[in-house]
Amino acid sequence: MSLPSPEECLHAVQTRDARFDGRFVYGVLSTTIFCRPSCPSRPARPEHLRWFDTPGAAINAGFRPCKRCRPEQTEQSDQILERLSRWLIEHADANPSLDDLAAMGPWSPTQLQKRFKAWLGISPKQLLDATRSEVFKAALKRGMRITDAIMEAGFGSSSRVYGEPLRHLGMSPKSWRSGAAGEQIFFASTDTALGRLMMAATETGVCFAEFGTDDAALLAKLRQEFPNATLRESPARESSELATWLQALSDHLEHDQPRPNVPLDLRGTALQIKVWRFLLGTEIGSRHSYSEVARAIGADKAHRAVASACAANRIAILVPCHRVLSASGSLAGYRWGLARKRALLAQEALAGPALAQATTTQQNVVSD
Ligand SMILES: [Zn+2]
């Protein structure tokens, strides 16, 4: 909605015309307070007044809402959320907290978190992560609304893009440290070209894919990673998705089929998630040093932490930590043994281009 003319605004303020509430607010330069047109406070001198089409615009210009007429309450919930999101994106480098964000709007941090997720499909924290996505940045540059740009970039709950690996960016440190209390995790295992493989998934996606000697050892590992979850063996009929993913991963190892693109449930510290997300974006057949990954995630000196993040990866192959080598090109370590790492690298070096192409084809077919 466009701002009425300055004359109309001034007249509305002088007559405290409530019909203009919601159409504009006015800021008072001498007090840096802003009001709705009908505010019962005595209006300041006309030369001290400034007009804004929304409360958000007044707040951005440095005015505070009047405690008497509560002009910020004329702002629609969606407008507030859009404004807060813009603010968050503009200040992403400073990594603002939920409290910082809540201070810019009318809600408590908890309320904000809830409304934000309902509106955008992701949390403010996840929006911060999304600001690093090139697709998202490009969409915003083209003038897209944030809700649309988020979908375009493949984030957000309503975007059911098949195989979008960044759809689930993990959970808050608090909930993963709780060991997945109250959650059900389904698991299944199979023999693959690289040995016995167990895969497990939450409602969100695959949270575990590990090699081991036998099912008992693998189950013990799964239990250790998610000590408070209810673990359930998954007959194919109960979690057919899991069975499909496990088969696809096995086919990938056995028959050079494309690496399956499945939803992931990444759980870790902020730095671990950054490292794993970086790995998800690496090309088949590519190789990266620990310090290269550290630079890429903006933590130049953290190559040791990167190495630990790779070692802590519990989703083999799908989060391709096997592509990270020491600076000299030696294999360095691998959670599931150097023989497996060597085999995976050799497979990718041989079949890289073909697999990359096949992956693209697969996605195109599904999105048609
Ligand atoms: Zn007022």
Ions, cofactors, ligands: which are bound?
zinc ion
CATH homologous group name of the largest domain: Winged helix-like DNA-binding domain superfamily/Winged helix DNA-binding domain
Architecture per CATH nomenclature, i.e. the level-2 architecture of the largest domain:
Orthogonal Bundle
User: What would you call the structural class?
Assistant: alpha/beta
The total beta strand count reads 10
Please give the share of residues in helix.
40-55%
CATH topology heading of the largest domain: Arc Repressor Mutant, subunit A
Write the H/E string, N to C.
Answer: HEEEHEHHHHHHHEEEHEHHEHHEH
DSSP helix count?
15
User: How would you state the average pLDDT, rounded?
Assistant: 80
Strand content: 5-15%
Shape: elongated
Low-confidence stretches: 157-176, 355-368
Largest sheet: 4 strands, mixed
Cofactor: Zn(2+)
InterPro entries: Ada-like_dom_sf, Ada_DNA_repair_Zn-bd, Homeodomain-like_sf, HTH_AraC, MethylDNA_cys_MeTrfase_AS, MethylDNA_cys_MeTrfase_DNA-bd, MethylDNA_cys_MeTrfase_DNAb, MGMT_N_sf
GO biological process, one term: DNA repair
Catalytic activity: a 4-O-methyl-thymidine in DNA + L-cysteinyl-[protein] = a thymidine in DNA + S-methyl-L-cysteinyl-[protein]; a 6-O-methyl-2'-deoxyguanosine in DNA + L-cysteinyl-[protein] = S-methyl-L-cysteinyl-[protein] + a 2'-deoxyguanosine in DNA
